Amino acid sequence: MQAVRTARRIEGVTYAVRDVVLLARQAAAAGKQMIYLNIGDPCQFDFRTPEHVVEAIVRALRDGHTGYAPSEGTAEAVEAIRRDAEERKGITGVRDVLIGHGASEPIEILLTALLEPGEGVLVPRPGYPLYPAVLAKLGARAVPYDLDESADWQPDPEQIEKAIDGGVRALVLINPNNPTGSVTSRQTLERVLEIAERHDLVVLSDEIYDRMILDDDDHVATASLRDDLPIATFGGLSKVWLGPGLRIGWSVLSGPEPKLAPLIEAMGRLARARLCANHPIQHAVRPALEGPSDHIVATNRTLRRRRDLLVEKINAIDGWSLVPPRGAFYAFPRFELPVEDTEVVREMILGHGVVLVHGSGFGQKPGTQHVRIVFLPDERLLTEACDRLATYTRGLSG
Question: What domains sit in the chain, N to C, each tagged with a CATH number?
Answer without folding.
Answer: 11-48+294-397 (3.90.1150.10), 51-290 (3.40.640.10)
